[in-house]
Write a structure and sequence with these properties.
With about 270 residues, this protein is mostly helical. The protein folds into two domains: about 110 residues, no CATH class; about 130 residues, no CATH class. Helix 7 crosses helix 9.
Length: about 270
């Protein structure tokens, strides 16, 4: 079995532009070792990136963690480069016994995962996309129990409420705004008349069906009274389904903003 030959001039630093871009994006422009921000903004709002691309497996013979079995392509790949500040670059290359290949790969992996989690958190807080999911819905469950012993019916109701909360993930911002109006009105016992057929016909015109049908299909509301009425009848109200009413009462009791759940879709409040 022949070993790979090392060129007389050594391996060259040939990190592609695409790889460099991916490295800095995945690093969050911060050092994977100490967390230092690696972007500086001057008085003219010009950004200067000051991060170092450090090779995990050394690039040339004599460099830290060099492995002659690794070729130039691998050495300059995304997998073999970690973004660090200048101080940490010196530290990991002068303390090789502590900063092994295995440890540096783990530090890189952990740092990049944390960057993705932070980015996901930012996206999920946007009103037009994403959400912050619940974990156990423990707070909602305790509210439902009211001191009672756990039982099958409680578990079934909790599952239905979890499913209903998750339905918000599939609703666009316009439908969620409509649901917010309905939910606020429900908590006011309909005193603002925003549950009436006449309100939706006036406020939304021909769009009322496109907004309300998805809410009925997912069991947030019930429109049976609207369908059964005639123009000679009194102005009917839509009905808010029981499980959504219960969720609304929990949010009201806990002083949690309806907008944070319905618009921003922060479901962690149920934990």
């Amino acid at each position: 079995m022949t070993s790979k030959k090392i060129s007389k001039t050594g391996n060259k630093r040939l990190v592609s532009t695409q790889t460099q871009r991916e490295l800095f994006i995945m690093s969050g422009n911060s050092c994977a070792i100490c967390g230092q921000i690696l972007a500086e903004i001057d008085d003219n709002n010009i950004i200067t990136y000051c991060g170092n691309m450090a090779h995990i497996v050394g690039l040339k013979k004599g460099s830290a963690r060099f492995d002659e079995t690794k070729d130039e392509k691998y050495l300059n790949s995304f997998e073999n480069i970690i973004i660090v500040c200048a101080n940490c670059h010196t530290k990991i290359d002068t303390n090789v016994s502590n900063y092994t290949v295995k440890k540096l790969k783990k530090l890189k992996e952990t740092h990049e995962k944390n960057v993705l989690l932070q980015a996901n958190g930012i996206v999920n807080r946007a009103s037009k996309g994403g959400w912050i999911d619940f974990s156990t819905c423990h707070a909602l469950y305790e509210y439902m129990r009211c001191g009672e012993e756990p039982n099958t019916q409680l578990d079934e109701d909790l599952d239905k409420m979890k499913h209903l909360i998750c339905q918000l993930k599939d609703l666009n911002i316009d439908i969620r705004r409509c649901l917010l109006i309905i939910s606020k009105s429900e908590l006011q016992d309909g005193k603002d008349n925003n549950l009436h057929l006449s309100y939706f016909e006036t406020a939304y015109g021909d769009q009322d069906t496109k907004l309300l049908t998805p809410l009925e299909t997912r069991k947030f509301i019930n429109l049976d009274d609207w369908r059964q009425c005639s123009y000679d009848d009194d102005d009917p109200e839509l009905a808010v389904c029981d499980h959504w009413c219960y969720i609304l009462s929990f949010l009201q009791e806990e002083n949690i903003s309806l907008g944070s759940v319905i618009i921003d879709r922060d479901f962690s409040v149920f934990d």
